[in-house]
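Hi W., the S-adenosylmethionine complex you wanted:
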Amino acid sequence: MTHPGQLLKQESLYAGKEMGQNFLACPATARMIVDRACISEDTRVLEIGPGLGALTIPIAAKTRHVIAVEKDRRLVPLLQKELENREIDWVKIVNQDFMKTDIRSLAKDNKLVVMGNLPYNISSQILFQLVRERAYIEKAFLMFQKELADRILALPGKKAYSRLSAIARYAADISFVANIGPAAFFPKPVVDSTVLVFDFIAPADVSRNTETLLFTVIKAAFSKRRKSLKNSLVGMDLGLDKPAVARALARADIVPERRAETLNVAEFLSLTRAVETLLPEKS
Ligand code: SAM
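Structure:
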């Protein structure tokens, strides 16, 4: 692996902060992440933000089914060259914003394994997108800023427990893979990074509509996290007034003075089902 600093210098390019460009510069770390994904020759991998190929190259050594979505068009010819130098001609590079990528059309009939050392400025949005599209994804190996990974892993009652923790925990079994220090990157970030693996799940007894409402309930509850649920759920997002919120909480058997940060996923789900009974039926 050529050092990313050297590759960029050769082309008079720089790493862009606005695209979260901290490139992996440690081949052993890249190999460890790819090895943990247990990719076989049949695995179809979708990589988010391949950059200069630190993960792409070891991924392509394991499978010929690789799609890599990179937003920065300056990097595409460099990545192409890095692959050609290794006689790898089976990686499909898509020069596109991942947030505009149609995961379903890429998956076709086979679920994808998603991998990425994520651009840190949009990691949460990417995770929400993967959750929404998880019917087409088997699992995801993703690198986050450690602080964000801690929030994703946080349990109810902890300060770090957030909308992201509740939604991620509903949609996946999440495991910790590794912490990685700044020295493994170019340029070196000021923070540590963490790799997590998401084994996506879709509860059979939750319809698409109920799931959408669940995400709205979670969002509304956490948007005013310092308030008790009897207040935070009132208003715009759900369109419920105070008496309706009180009825929903009573039906779900949840004490109205509790706050969002104390509710586990099962409780959010029963609250959602109670809210559902109060909404007008859509024809
Ligand atoms: N995978 C490479 C590595 O590990 O060295 C690069 C990781 S770097 C943290 C994030 C990469 O995501 C960069 O290549 C950046 O250009 C790309 N990127 C940023 N925003 C993106 C977006 N919206 N869609 C696709 N790629 C994006």
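The longest strand covers residues 137-145.

W.
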